[in-house]
């Protein structure tokens, strides 16, 4: 069954096939390209290419032909007003939302689809789930299993999805909990943890599958203000690790500190992108300037 009506012509399908095979074709005109990873965190995997992605819910077009490239090990932070399409874009990257047009590749491999003939066809569910093991995602609301301990939450997916032994998964799980500062809470249940601790467990869980990329959907929005920094500090450390990060957030100071590229979205489109210095200190577009004038304190500076 054809999924994306906008890609019916054979020339377009051939372009996708070429992208899968080489993963090196030039980005189309209008593509936003994130800055390369810093030299101190080299990476060889996790190239994300989003090409002319469209998504509608009923009559409302939420994504209007978004194109964005993030290099391996890059840190792209997406900001913008509520309803601008930021979270929807993030969810298309791991196929939690099916696209209506365009396509997404990770390291040259189509996400959620394959080319058959001249059309894109959605993958089988088991193949989609396999792809998701390479794409870690941290949600706003933690989504931990309440009946499992912190450690059990972290090791569940490696045992089930990757068939790792319980001993191996447990060893790795304790290492990850230690990495996020929660090794001493390994046997605690989610109800026994603060919101910040639960979100740190969720980050450890996302890391447990050794993903190529990590997606963060406003990871601090459900937290009390005093708990925000403990989560942001963990993400700051991850930004140095060489894993590709794409983060949707309203924390402008955090975006300034960790991003290679800041992407400003509004009304389903990328208005502009650039380095934190470019976007926060000298935005080109009036819409960007107007948004930041309302959300950034006067003392905020690069």
Tell me about this structure.
By secondary structure, the protein is an alpha/beta fold. Helix content is 34%, strand content 23%. The chain has helices at 10-22, 86-93, 125-132, 150-161, 166-179, 195-207, 228-238, 252-258, 276-281, 286-295; strands at residues 32-33, 48-57, 60-70, 75-79, 101-106, 109-110, 113-116, 119-122, 135-138, 213-217, 244-248, 261-266, 269-274. The strands form 3 sheets. Strands 9-10-11-4-12-13 form a 6-stranded mixed beta sheet, sandwiched between helices. A 5-stranded mixed beta sheet has the order 1-3-2-5-6, sandwiched between helices. The chain has a two-stranded antiparallel sheet with strand order 7-8. Helix 4 (150-161) runs parallel beside helix 6 (195-207), helix 5 (166-179) packs across helix 6 and helix 6 runs parallel beside helix 7 (228-238). Residues 1-17 and 19-27 have low confidence and may be disordered.
């Amino acid at each position: 069954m054809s999924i994306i009506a906008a890609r019916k012509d054979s020339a377009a399908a051939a372009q996708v096939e070429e992208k899968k095979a080489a993963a090196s074709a030039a980005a189309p005109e209008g593509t936003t390209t994130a800055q390369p990873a810093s030299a101190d965190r080299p990476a060889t995997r996790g190239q994300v290419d989003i090409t002319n992605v469209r998504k509608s819910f009923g009559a409302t077009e939420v994504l209007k032909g978004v194109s964005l490239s993030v290099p391996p090990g890059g840190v792209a932070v997406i900001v913008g007003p509520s309803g601008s399409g930021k979270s929807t874009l993030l969810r298309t990257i791991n196929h939690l939302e099916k696209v209506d047009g365009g396509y997404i590749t990770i390291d040259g491999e189509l996400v959620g689809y394959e080319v058959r003939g001249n059309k894109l066809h959605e993958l089988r569910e088991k193949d989609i789930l396999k792809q998701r093991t390479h794409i870690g995602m941290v949600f706003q609301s933690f989504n931990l299993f309440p009946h499992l301990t912190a450690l059990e939450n972290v090791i569940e997916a490696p045992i089930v999805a990757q068939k790792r032994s319980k001993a191996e998964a447990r060893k790795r799980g304790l290492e990850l909990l230690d990495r996020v500062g929660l090794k001493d809470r390994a046997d605690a249940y989610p109800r026994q943890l603060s919101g910040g601790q639960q979100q740190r467990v969720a980050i450890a869980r996302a890391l447990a599958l050794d993903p190529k990329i990590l997606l963060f959907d406003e990871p601090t929005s459900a937290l009390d203000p005093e708990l925000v920094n403990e989560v942001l500090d963990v993400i700051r450390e991850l930004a140095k690790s060489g894993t590709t990060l794409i983060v949707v957030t309203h924390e402008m100071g955090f975006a300034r500190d960790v991003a290679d590229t800041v992407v400003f979205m509004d009304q389903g489109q990328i208005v502009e992108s650039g380095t934190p210095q470019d976007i926060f200190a000298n935005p080109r577009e009036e819409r960007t300037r107007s948004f930041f004038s309302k959300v950034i304190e006067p003392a905020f500076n690069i």
